[in-house]
């Protein structure tokens, strides 16, 4: 205990030194190391800790060895249990406790001021509305605890962002996305899974089924988050509603074609994500690592990647012109602006290294290039990674690109997946307060904000668990590997959404991370973690269905006495 305490103090002191320095590159390795316990004995831990706390040493030794080596094993520190939220976010226990108290008080108090509580309605109806809002928050909380790892897991795992900064950025962008881009119109039958006509005249039963689906999906998400399993929130809510529909409406209450599309995405999503990230990472190694000056090659390739990413996101997600040619021109203009702006950021932050003539490590790079140029280098060739200053530049560029891609994914996630919580919530409130059983339900802004708050709260309290799985436990990530996984996953999800194909963002990103590991060798992917994740995927729909049936039976008994 004494040696562990001394080591923690040593690491904290070194962190303060780094924070007060003028080193502008992202602090690779340091951030993820702070929330994963060190399994080495005290004598070796000191040397390992200092090598990671030193930016130059971390970049030139640890990452250089991993990039040049093809298939290194995942480190044994990933096998240790996760710490609490205070240690994970590098804050004091008192601060963590105060954060929890503030969230609890806000959860209990804010619904009382929400117009959606139903002002002017009977006390019983308002009391049930209050409880319904709490169920919606519970689901949103678990979405934040589990699904936000899609946006931030790889950035934290590679060291491009510290966990605390990732949580702050994600909290702002997730809430903004939920409030600004969250759908304002939904149908009572979430995701088109249930047949509305089956429940005509059974409003109390449908209401019980909706809140039971929220509670059931939230329960399974909480179990998955506790163990660090990244599961699909969409599959959770679909499984819950299927269970309710089958138990209380029969086989005719379920759209089986929609369920088949969801099941198909179990296979399609990870495979497509893995294939895309494999190609992206191999392209980075082929066209950046094998260049005579890898740092300059990375700085030149980054604006192109930003151009493609911003153009695709603008065309697929933003409200552009209804005329196709004008919409394409607007998207291209957005992409060009993003590329120019990012190029200026790179030149400003890394210009002192880009303008610096490569000295000793240039000879290493040039000799490696001359040796490799005599061979026929293909896309699948094993190419050694850069070292020294060139490695700093490459990781600096891709570190900034990871932060940018994480911000885009976080904002889009808040706008898209918040509907998994607020869709059934808004429908339940509408039925309770005298709305129709079927048709469209208008979602008020206060309910959108409530769902966004729930996502942020879950991310702050438990988000680090799944982030650790995505970022550390599947395969070891660096900024180039993390960017390859994130860029590939975002491209696949964006394209599939535009084409209407059944793709799960969670499954796609997990597959993308595995694809990056496979690009370095099969033994670079931790098979035990993959088995746990795949098993949790297979169990998600049955688990949600089982919980929904049980909860619906409980709530129908309770509501029969209350209403």
Annotate the secondary structure layout.
Blueprint: H1 2-20, H2 30-34, H3 42-53, H4 55-68, H5 85-88, H6 93-109, H7 123-146, H8 149-158, H9 163-180, E1 185-187, H10 203-226, H11 233-249, H12 256-289, H13 294-317, H14 324-354, H15 360-373, H16 388-417, H17 419-432, E2 440-442, H18 445-473, H19 479-499, H20 505-520, H21 527-562
Antiparallel strand pairs: 1-2
Helix pairs in contact: 1-3, 4-16, 7-10, 7-17, 7-18, 8-9, 8-16, 8-18, 8-19, 9-16, 9-18, 10-11, 10-17, 10-21, 11-21, 12-13, 12-19, 12-20, 13-14, 13-16, 13-19, 14-16, 16-19, 17-18, 19-20
Q: What does the model show?
A:
With 563 residues, the protein is mostly helical. Helix content is 73%, strand content 1%. It has 21 helices and two strands. The protein has helices at 2-20, 30-34, 42-53, 55-68, 85-88, 93-109, 123-146, 149-158, 163-180, 203-226, 233-249, 256-289, 294-317, 324-354, 360-373, 388-417, 419-432, 445-473, 479-499, 505-520, 527-562; strands at residues 185-187, 440-442. The longest helix is centred in the C-terminal third of the chain and has 36 residues, at 527-562. The radius of gyration is 25 Å and the shape is elongated.
